[in-house]
Queue: 4 jobs
Job 1
Amino acid sequence: MKTFKFALAIGATVASLSFASTPTRAAPDLELWRLDCGDVVVKDLSMFSDTFASAGKKGVLTDSCYVIRHGGDYLLWDTGLPAGLIGKALDQDAPIGVSLNSDIPTQLKQIGIKPEQIATVGISHNHFDHLGQAATFSKATLMIGAVDWQTFHDNPPPFAVVPDLVKPWLDGRAKLDLVTGDRDVFDDGSVIMLSMPGHTKGEAALLVKLAKMGPVLLSGDVVHFEDNLVTRGVPGFNENRADTLASMERLEAIAAGLNATLVIQHDPTHISRLPAFPESAR
């Protein structure tokens, strides 16, 4: 019986690897842009590491969004801070301050994309700083981890979860795509949503396999700064420390195995790893 169960486990593993590595159709041309979706100014970064590595330090977290063109289809990855913040002064006395200079539609216009052309909005996880402008794209399918989606029904909502930001999908007026595990977004192996639980139960990263630049790995909030990878510091507000560390290891292993450019979405030093907007990576 043990041998039979072991064989089943091996078979399941091989099947999952085959799914991940065998696309069902050829991938069209890919293009990737980074959008500026705000800044988060933090007076004490100690909350982002339980190893005391950030104690007493100040810092800025960039709020990045990304547009991926897959042939004639467009995917928006994360939607940043709410557009209502534009024009509002940063609260200098707050422990955490947020600011936004431009909304996503304004930036899309610069590269000739209309909001209604966004077919899918992919979300790394359920926190407000990644969902702030999601409702602007209510004609798009919202692609999000299934376990994270359930938190929008909780009363009261968990930390940093704001149900109003996904109202079109909560009301059933917009299409929803709930993801469990990894997802080959276009069924051709070119863009893969990767399950990376820990920060939240449904946390995800995004792998984009560009033809010229090579693979790019967008971190979601698996880590917030590169220093988290060095010190293995985990935010105290994360869902699960062990899962976070396991996802860190997977993130690094994928980046190393594919020789991918790892882009930590909140780390300002990683902005330059992609071309400056409105230029794109291919």
Job 2
Amino acid sequence: MASRRDSRIEPSFEGSRPAKSQDGFSVNEEDRVVPGNRKSSSARKTSKAKSSSRGKRGKARRGLFGVMARMFYWCFVLCIWGGIAVAGIVVYYGAKMPAATTWSIPDRAPNIKIVSVDGQLLANRGMSGGEAVGLHEMSPYIPEAVIAIEDRRFYSHFGIDPIGLSRAMVTNVLGRRFSQGGSTLTQQLAKNLFLKPDRTLERKVQEVLLALWLEHKHTKDQILEMYLNRVYFGSGAYGVEAASRRYFGKSARDVTLSEAALLAGLLKAPSRLSPARDPKAAEERSQLVLAAMRDEGKISAKELASAMSAPATRAPSYWTGSENYVADTIMEELPDLIGDVRSDIVVDTTVDLNLQKLAEQSIRRLIDESGKKLNVSQGALVSIDNSGAVRAMVGGYDYSTSQFDRASEARRQPGSAFKPFVYMAALEAGRTPDSVRNDAPIKIGKWTPDNYGGKYFGKVTLATALAKSLNSVAAQLTMEVGPDAVVEAAHRMGIQSDLIANTSIALGTSEVTPLELTSAYVPFANGGYKPDIHFIRRITTTEGKVLYDDNGGSAPRVVKQNIVGMMNSMMTGTVEIGTAKKAAFAWPSAGKTGTSQNSRDAWFVGYTANLTTGVWFGNDDGTPMKKVTGGALPAQAWHEFMVAAHEGVPVRPLPGTWKSTPPDTIVPDDIPSVDNNQAAPLPAVAVSRSEPAAAPAPAAVPAQAPVRRPAETVDADGFDMPGDGGTTASIKHPVPPGSVGGPAKKRKTSILDILGGG
């Protein structure tokens, strides 16, 4: 027992070092094996604290990874279902589209390129307003600018740009407004080619599908070329060629860097940013484009600075040019020549662009200088060569403010400019330029055709009467040959308008257009032939296939050669000593002035052996001008135009060899002197219809100096037709002809028939 007691290990609860056994072992309280419920409270607390710390750290780690895992899981699930939903939407809307095998690029709206006789552009017409230009034909700055601002990854994406789309979505969400679009150029082309501009899910899905199809079927360059030739640039311009012409007055081939930047900037909002509407906004946008091009490395810093300092120059107005009057006329003629236009075509015209500009400048200058003073606001000019080809046609002061073509559409009273047809009918009835009539007051029914200022000259030759534009003699001749003969002569020469066959037609009371009146003078210039008046020489496709070719044909003779010679001799006097002295220049020329009632219309139609040109001045509403006559503004405009048109052209004489009888050998008809007390003095001796005419002239004659006939001159600004306070021609309201005479009737017992020889 003693030995067992000696070997007992006694617990120690003191803070001292535990006692060691003989074998060197020691035991403390932690080594004791006791039931858990008997452990000390401090021990339990320590143990719990340690295990709790380890548990929290584990749970935190497990919670973070769990949340991430759950997020990944649900995102994956969402993507799966989203993909299924998108696929379903695509399938649904795709099923509503035609089969892809039937898809094709629709034809571009055909362009009609109208060019001058020497190939210069007059106008582009059609829905697009400009011809298609190849990608490598246009200025390289244009595609570079468009790609830089609209679709920087155009050459790397597959029709849809996920990066650009994501960026646009983020920008729009953060900005809480739609400020950026994610459509690529391919998507925009698909929308322009096939879809309506609706903002719907269906249209967007179809746009994507069509963009993918375009990328599959066409190269990037082909897609870009189609886009640039069809996209809208504002102000009615579709495609880069139309836009370049519209804004810069030049081809897309010649566009500069700053101009290309301006064009590219328009694509975001063509109507709002159009330089025609807001030049400042367009310029600011173009600078953003230039900066984008610099960021993309398309231009150098030097090029950027140069373009910034030299902004695009813009044409004052694309629609100002008078050549657009010609283009309008041609567009009206095309359907009759080639039917519907289904592809791009080129129309070669007879118009000389230099002459066209000369005519326009002359009309505008005279109106600018004298318009307010003389109360004249409009003018027109037509010039035709001997073959009937129209070389120039100006239909008004400014096409941009009024597209109404006064040259081919406005019917106005020609006044005395109609008298040549009266005299021609008289010559055909047997009179000659040397036939004498008594210029004195004459009364026909209730009508008295007074001369200007009431001035009369007594016995005069027909040549003098025409040069002085004596109304009484013209009326006498009309009564002698009959109004029907005058109407027939005018129609035969080229007048197409309806003419009223009454006595007042002698003074030009029936309305005509400047184009038809000018064309009716052409037979005087070419020796008696009536050509077809035409603007179009040839029509071809852009590939060169000929659709129409004017071969000229044969012009019928409408007046005998000897009559042409007499008329040219008589109308030469109008320019040399008569009412058109302001028109005279170095070439042998002839013509006739005309002024309607109260100076509502002023005309001069004249010609050389090279050109026949007619000029008209007046107001659209028919208000009178301030004493403007045919010998004033019209003769001045004619002179300016014809001098320039004949510069460097060899001089040629007018057709015909008629020479007036010297004044001392003229044997006048037995006509009594003027009796002021007599109401209507008339020739006392009948004038025979078979009065001898000059023999036909040979086909070719040498040039000869113009023959001056004895005649008293009159003021070139003198009126051809007296005013009566009545209304006259208006482009809107036709004016009834004079109420004198009527259809010609046979009056066998009429004193006028007996005395006038009719």
Job 3
Amino acid sequence: MTTVGFAQSNSSLFSFRNKAIDKTKASRAKWVSSSSLPAPPFSSPSSETFHRTDYGQVIHNDVLCGNNEESRKKKKRVFFLDVSPLCYEGNKPSSQAFGHWLSLFFSQVSLTDPVIAVLDGEEGNKRRRELLPSYKAHRRSPVPGRHSKRPQHFVDDVLKKCNVPVVRMEGHEADDVVATLMEQAVQRGYRAVIASPDKDFKQLISENVQIVIPLADLRRWSFYTLKHYHAQYKCDPQSDLSFRCIMGDEVDGVPGIQHVVPAFGKKTAMKLVRKHGSLESLLSAAAVRTVGRPYAQEALTKYADFLRRNYQVLALKRDVRVQIQDEWLVERDTSNDSEVLSSFFSTLHG
């Protein structure tokens, strides 16, 4: 079931999603330790993690405002707004954080370009849970009676009054819906920009797909492109997915091969992925010849199904039954932004 539209209703303050437990903090720290680059401190349980780097993706005014001649010559842009991670400050749900990032996003990043907001549908992670019961199992469910659908209605109300369609698909996570709509937009000749701090979207980066991330320490949004990915990892974005399939993702409850073969570390995984290009190519090669040291060779053959299962869990789907609509791709009417956001912040501080 798809929920989408432009609403004209009133709502009150919200507490958008549940807290992450301490395991999320520990997992986040381990992820960050693999890079010398710091992670934004506001990340939510589903937003682990992009990094601020020193090679220029921080937005400058000419890029923010789209005033440079080069930006005018580029393809039309459409933004996909991953809403849920923006509703957190640290590990706590925050109306202030949502309003802050949305206000900056509208005024500095998207301007009048079309924006499509996406949220998780009911039982969105059911398919992945069936494949891997530990998937996001450590995240608490909303407390009955304390959390309701009203917070979602509140978020929907703000977005729709700002002329942003809101899409959620029952049985699908927001990431898969974004990946599906992104591909449709690119096929239509658009340049897709995904607005999210979620590391899972790195696998989608290409010449026509960028990510814009909220940097809490700078209190601004910043573009992360294929150029930045190459500079940081020295490989193709598809390799990121393969690497995570091997090493796992503790934040999402996906175990890595090091849990069964401790000697199989990150350096070995990255070396093999860079050489073979993808997980499937690596596993196919390991099935017919030696691809590394004995422990690596044995692990790749013995635990091939384990790794392929991880791929099914971590790979974003691009075949969700949702179709991008022509009216979602028109220039966004920003005439309501100031009034809607002013009312939002007045309610917060009232």
Job 4
Amino acid sequence: MSRTLIEDLSNEFFYEIFEYLDSYEIYQAFFDLNNRFQQLLNSSYLLFKIRHCYSQSKEIIINKYKQIFLHNKNQIFSVHLWILPDNNQFISSFTIDSSFIRLESLVFRPIESDLLISFLPKLIYLPRLFSLTIDTWSALKDLGNIYQLIFNLRKLKYIKYKATESDDFDITVSLSIATNEQQVSTIEYLIIDHPCAYNELYNIISYTP
């Protein structure tokens, strides 16, 4: 009776398995097996989907994600981060640049408003960022600056923005109506999950095609 060894399975077989796994799980299970799997994990055929949740705060896990961001940034397809305040340094340590040539989707939930404002300008260097989902952790009185930074992302096609309401003040969106030069956004799907006045909504929509 013949036996099939793991070494006999094709690369395509493993790529299909990797489609269902988080990048940390892939590295943890396969990277140290042998040279073949190291080559597989560094191949341009493999795209990483990173999902880091708040329960994965152990230093060994965070360091593994940092390794992926450092050595495999050209293979990262999506990043989904659940961010607690004590994980802000983990996010701030990321260097975002044009070498993330395959990154198409980013999800931040929840994220502090100050951290979001400092992080959004870096996303302009991503050549294929098509989808962005934001859930802010702390309440912000005026969302105009955040929307202006979002509309500067010229490749974006999908944006969902949820802002935390406050009992102490009403949320406003200080955003002027878009000029002809500013109506260059590629956004096709705009989901707004926060209160705003009709005129503020009108001004936001004026930046979309």
